[in-house]
Amino acid sequence: MLNIVLFGPPGAGKGTQAEKLQQKYGILHLSTGEVIRQEMNRGSELGRLAAQQMEGGKLASDELVLGIIENYLQEHRTAPGVIFDGFPRTLPQAEAFDSMLKKIGTQVTVMLALDVPDEVVTERILTRGKTSGRADDQSLETIQNRIAVYKKQTAVVADFYKKQDKFRAVNGVGTIDEIFDRLCAAIDALR
Ligand code: AMP
């Protein structure tokens, strides 16, 4: 399996790039944020719990997110590969993820980390907020909190993959196509 962890701060363009990568490489795309938003829109128990946990731009709990991943892996055991977008976001998630993948005889192939300065992601999220309908894209305070949470809880996940020699930084500034070409070059260099 080609298991890609697409990493980077909120607003780095992970969702946009994941859609394009999915098409080019014929693999699946799992966005934990998207699954959570769908659950919230459906008004499910999981969605309600997540909404409480995420208030003000905080992360959902590891337990909740790992449950989503576990289910997904069960359902897609035979997939040729998956782009994990927005996961893992904490060290415990990365560790648990390694064990889960090992159990099904696979592993993370590579972490592709989009490198984008704070000012650029803030601007991108505010622009996205005009059309995305996402409550967490609307307020500058929530956006700044999400960036702070990324630095405090999520950035360390990069070190986890650096230690395994799976980390590849990709310049995330430029046009969608320019960034896509850089990601593809990083993937093709693995083969
Ligand atoms: P995203 O769509 O990736 O920007 O995620 C939107 C929100 O969903 C985040 O700000 C978190 O509150 C929550 N979320 C998504 N993925 C995770 C994760 N792996 N761990 C914890 N919370 C997550």
Automatic annotation (TrEMBL):
InterPro entries: Adenylat/UMP-CMP_kin, Adenylat_kinase_CS, P-loop_NTPase. PROSITE patterns: ADENYLATE_KINASE (PS00113). It comes from the Bacteria. It is found in: Cytoplasm. AMP binds at T32, R37, G86, F87, P88, R89, Q93, R134, R146. Residues 31-60 are annotated as: NMP. It holds the Pfam family ADK. It catalyses: AMP + ATP = 2 ADP. One of its GO terms (cellular component) is cytoplasm. One of its GO terms (molecular function) is AMP kinase activity. One of its GO terms (biological process) is AMP salvage. Its EC number is 2.7.4.3. ATP binds at G11, A12, G13, K14, G15, T16, R128, G174. Pathway: Purine metabolism; AMP biosynthesis via salvage pathway; AMP from ADP: step 1/1. It is an enzyme of class 2 (transferase). Gene3D superfamilies: P-loop containing nucleotide triphosphate hydrolases (3.40.50.300). Keywords: ATP-binding, Cytoplasm, Kinase, Nucleotide biosynthesis, Nucleotide-binding, Transferase. Monomer. Catalyzes the reversible transfer of the terminal phosphate group between ATP and AMP. Plays an important role in cellular energy homeostasis and in adenine nucleotide metabolism. Consists of three domains, a large central CORE domain and two small peripheral domains, NMPbind and LID, which undergo movements during catalysis. The LID domain closes over the site of phosphoryl transfer upon ATP binding. Assembling and dissambling the active center during each catalytic cycle provides an effective means to prevent ATP hydrolysis. Belongs to the adenylate kinase family. This is Adenylate kinase.
